[in-house]
Design brief:
This protein has 162 residues and is an alpha+beta fold. It has helices at 7-22, 128-135, and strands at 33-36, 45-51, 54-61, 73-82, 85-88, 99-106, 109-114, 119-122.
């Protein structure tokens, strides 16, 4: 049985919690998955969730795309997400430090449209052959980035010249 003296405190806390969560935005969007990048054909971009508002993006760049005869460069960048927006730091690969993108679903296809005009499209299960092709260019699995308990930031990794 609840102590009568604590009842007002209990009601105040309950009301505050209700108001806090009743005003909360919609549940977070799942940005994780594999995306195609039309600026780099065949070079898949994989987005991994780190925590509620942080993701990292792993991918490869070829010139201009990724194929079996192309030398590719692997990259990993971090990004912050809020609602349907993502702000990524591509500076460690020569891009902008705060590139904003918007996640939308168009005709059943999830896309991220970046403010520079690029548009990534989530790969469906039918496109998993592109994901499998991209894996042969990847040097590390996502779990290997957590060796020291954090995701890599700029210049954390030395590039392998071999």
């Amino acid at each position: 049985m609840m102590n009568v003296n604590r009842l007002p405190l209990f009601l105040i806390v309950s009301i505050c919690l209700f108001l806090r969560f009743a005003d909360a935005k919609e549940s977070p969007i799942d940005f994780s998955g594999s995306f195609s990048d039309p600026n780099h054909p065949g070079c898949v971009r994989n987005i991994f969730i780190f925590d509620l508002d942080t993701v990292w993006i792993e991918g490869n760049d070829g010139n201009p795309g990724c194929s079996k005869d192309t030398i590719v460069t692997q990259f990993t960048v971090t990004a912050k997400i809020s609602g349907n927006e993502i702000i990524a730091d591509f500076s460690n690969k020569g891009g902008p430090a705060n590139l904003k993108g918007v996640y939308t679903v168009e005709y059943l296809f999830a896309t991220i449209t970046w403010e520079d005009g690029n548009k990534w499209t989530r790969l469906s299960p039918e496109n998993q052959d592109e994901v499998e092709k991209s894996k042969k260019y990847t040097k590390k699995t996502p779990a290997e980035y957590f060796v020291d308990g954090r995701i890599p930031m700029d210049n954390d990794e030395k590039k392998d010249d071999h």
